[in-house]
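User: For my dataset I need records formatted as: sequence, then structure tokens, nothing else. Please produce one.
Assistant:
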Amino acid sequence: MNDLHKLSSVKMPYGKYKGTILIELPENYVVWYHSKGFPSGEIGRLLGLLYEIKLNGLEYLVYKARL
């Protein structure tokens, strides 16, 4: 499974938005995480990618990859 598919299927494992699919996380939450520092491991890597995608308005790529 590639990273775009993961962003549209993996759920946030903890925190305020636990259970929310990553692409559906609010932008302000992802930006907050960026300023705080992403966690280590795959979830941190995916959140970093999500930050770049949301920052550049590229969410449509993730939704397109869902098809």
